[in-house]
Each structure stands twice: as structure tokens, then as C-alpha cells.
UniProtKB/TrEMBL annotation:
Name of the protein in question: Heat-inducible transcription repressor HrcA
Membership in a protein family: Belongs to the HrcA family.
General function of this protein: Negative regulator of class I heat shock genes (grpE-dnaK-dnaJ and groELS operons). Prevents heat-shock induction of these operons.
Limits of the Heat-inducible transcription repressor HrcA C-terminal domain: 110-343
PANTHER family: HEAT-INDUCIBLE TRANSCRIPTION REPRESSOR HRCA
Signal peptide limits: none
Keywords associated with the record: Repressor, Stress response, Transcription, Transcription regulation
NCBIfam families the record matches: hrcA (TIGR00331)
Length: 358
């Protein structure tokens, strides 16, 4: 919970009850309902005052003046981060279910992912998405750094399939001028040789997972610069060479009352059907080793950068081949979803796919 926002146990309980009731009914929640159905042992007036304070804190709001209250994106965020609890038995049930429903040896990988997406969509009632595995075998053959001007260099990349790519990269802050251009060229030559010695034969999927903490002493000052090079290279290959996304469950999910406006549905369908290149990096991104990434990513409403998804929650988790993330599995649904179930569904599916690929 945000250090700026401290909620008492009572306020947390009332927020939890409001969210759970709204998820179940899709109707604004009043204080009397909370008092009658959630056993708080306080009057509806006390609950009404507490709901008013939660509204002032931006966690609830009233869609109409005379209506009850519904959760805001911030309210759902507090719920997901602090108030809900995942059911381990539900997770075990799902793992067993995937094991029974998916015969890993009977299908090719694309058919397998389509079946997994269909099961996930059926169980959740939301839109299921699974990215096909990235080509983790595309290996680096040669890299070369070439000075362009005082502030930029060009990185030329050749893979084992002789695919060639060129990327502009900003130099670290340092005074380079015409007098020391030869020094810059010499340093870039040394860096190119060093990068080739470390990276030749490595797959593109492993770039963000290299440990640069043990660099030779003379190259330590370039550690950050080289990490920037690898991040740019990995990002460009991720965005330009993205694979198709298996999508299931659209028609069922769009029956939810949140998708009653035609324009919102059209925008979402256009994104899913015509602009998957925008959707892909949102649900699949290589985690950095130096960051403690959660096993499951949950983006709620306005936390999503794409406009068609600002009324949705996107839940995703990477599946792996060995220790390397090669794809992602996710759900898209309204922000009014049973987060405990949805998160466990995604996590169990990602684990099952990782087990199969490994």
C-alpha cells in the first residue's frame, strides 16, 4: 500500500467488501448492502461515512449522485496489492486440469497454444492471449561499433542467418571532438572486439540475461554503455520481429456490461485484430536481471498505455524455455474481474507451458 495512504482495518474491510460485491453484481454498492451482507458489526451510517472517506481518497466513486459507489482503478490496485489472497488449492486444481486437457506430446506447439488459450478463455470468461515462442535460436555472428558524430555511434549487427541490422546509439556523456576522433575509433574498435568475444554465438533472447558484474577491469567504465547497447538491440528485435498472438474468447468477453458502448468495442477489436504489433510489447517483455519482476504483471485501467485498454485489466506472465522467457500468456477483461481467479489462471498456464517447453 502506498506510504501516503494509510487505511484502518475497518476501511480496508469496507473497500474489500465493496469491490467483491461490485465484481459479483456489476451494480453500484450502498452502505446498507455492506452492512447486511458482510458482517461488519457497525451501522450503515458508519459504513456510509467510511465509504465517503474512501471516495475522497480516490478509491471509490459514484457513477451518479444518488447511486452507490464502485471501485476506481486505484481502488482495484489497493485490492490487488494488499487485500486479496490467492488460493493455493485452486492453483493446484488448475495445474492438474492443464495436465489432463493438454497432451504435450500429441500436438505441435501452435496447436498446443491454441488449445491452452481456449481453455484459459473458457475458464475465465475473458479474452485469452498467448504469443507464439520467439526465435530464441537466432544467434549473433558479428557486431561492429562505428562513430557517426560526437554524440552517437552506429551498431551494425549480423546474425547467423546473415540478417543485418543497424542501430543508432547515444554515446555516454563525454567530450569527444575532432582532435580525439582517432581515440574514439580506437576505443570503439576495442569495444567491438570485446563485445564479439562475449556475445558471438549468443541468442538474441539471452541478451538481457548476461551478467556484466564480472567484466575485466579496463572495461568496467563501459558497463552501462554496453548494457544500453544490449537493451536497444533486444528491444528492436522484440518489436520488429514479433510473432503472432493466439487470441480466444472475444465474443464471450464482450458480453460483459462494461463493453456496452459500440465505440469502445470497435477500438478494442481493431487493436486485437489489426494492431497486434502494439499489443505484443505490452504483454511480452524480457525482464531485466537486476529488477525483481513479479511472476504475473497486472495492469489496471489507466495503467495501460493503449487507449482501447484503459477500461480493461491486462494480466500477463511469461512462459520460458529453460530459464529464458520466450513468450507470454495473458488475459484481457474489464477492470471488474475476480482478480484472484484470473491471476492464478494465468500463472498456472504459464507454468504449464514452461514445463512443456523445458
Amino acid at each position: 500500500m502506498s506510504p501516503q495512504l494509510k487505511l484502518s482495518d475497518r476501511h480496508q474491510h469496507i473497500l474489500w467488501a465493496t469491490i467483491r460485491h461490485y465484481i459479483a453484481t456489476a451494480e453500484p454498492v450502498g452502505s446498507r448492502t455492506i452492512a447486511q451482507e458482510y458482517g461488519l458489526q457497525v451501522s450503515s451510517a458508519t459504513i456510509r461515512n467510511a465509504m465517503g472517506r474512501l471516495e475522497k481518497a480516490g478509491l471509490l466513486y459514484q457513477p451518479h449522485t444518488s447511486a452507490g459507489r464502485i471501485p476506481s482503478d486505484s481502488g482495484y490496485r489497493i485490492y490487488v496489492d494488499n487485500l486479496m489472497s490467492l488460493d493455493e488449492s485452486w492453483n493446484n486444481h488448475l495445474l492438474n486440469l492443464y495436465h489432463q486437457k493438454l497432451n504435450w506430446e500429441a500436438y505441435n506447439i501452435e496447436t498446443l497454444l491454441k488449445r491452452a488459450a481456449q481453455i484459459l478463455a473458457s475458464l475465465s470468461g475473458h479474452i485469452a492471449l498467448i504469443t507464439l515462442p520467439q526465435n530464441s535460436q537466432n544467434q549473433l555472428r558479428h557486431l561492429q561499433l562505428i562513430p557517426v558524430n560526437e554524440k552517437q555511434v552506429m551498431l551494425l549487427v549480423v546474425t547467423d542467418g546473415y540478417y543485418t541490422q543497424s542501430l543508432l546509439i547515444d554515446l555516454p556523456q563525454r567530450d569527444y571532438n575532432s582532435d580525439n576522433r582517432e581515440d574514439l575509433e580506437s576505443e570503439l574498435e576495442l569495444l567491438s572486439n570485446f563485445l564479439n568475444s562475449k556475445l558471438k554465438g549468443k541468442s538474441l533472447a539471452t541478451l538481457n540475461h548476461l551478467n556484466w558484474g564480472e567484466l575485466d577491469q579496463e572495461f568496467k567504465k563501459y558497463t552501462e554503455f554496453m548494457q544500453d547497447i544490449l537493451k536497444v538491440l533486444a528491444r528492436e528485435n522484440q518489436s520488429t520481429d514479433c510473432t503472432p498472438i493466439v487470441i480466444r474468447g472475444i465474443s464471450e468477453a464482450l458480453r460483459q456490461p462494461e463493453f456496452s458502448e459500440v465505440q469502445q468495442v470497435q477500438m478494442l477489436l481493431h487493436l486485437l485484430e489489426e494492431e497486434q504489433e502494439q499489443l505484443f510489447p505490452l504483454i511480452f517483455e524480457y525482464p531485466d536481471l537486476d529488477e525483481k519482476s513479479p511472476r504475473v504483471s497486472v495492469r489496471i485501467g489507466s495503467e495501460n498505455p493503449l487507449e482501447p485498454l484503459t477500461i480493461c485489466t491486462v494480466i500477463s506472465a511469461n512462459y520460458k524455455q529453460g530459464d529464458i522467457p520466450v513468450g507470454s500468456i495473458g488475459l484481457i477483461g474489464p477492470t471488474r474481474m475476480l482478480y484472484e481467479n484470473a491471476i492464478t489462471l494465468v500463472e498456472a498456464a504459464a507454468y504449464s507451458l514452461s514445463e512443456a517447453l523445458s
